[in-house]
Amino acid sequence: MREHELVPCQPRSFRTTTQSGDDDAVPDLVTRDFTADQPGVEFVGDIPPSTSCWAVPPLNIHT
Known about the structure:
By secondary structure, this protein is low in regular secondary structure. It has strands at residues 43-44, 59-60.
């Protein structure tokens, strides 16, 4: 492509680069304490931002 001086014409995807400042929107119900005394007490999960249709299921943190 460089030899023929061709460049892609697809626009780049928009990315947010600033923090919104609304840190109190979601309460921290676990208070960042991820320890559990027995199985089935606390569960941790994550749904990362993605363009695909996949989601991560909750994970048991005791086992």
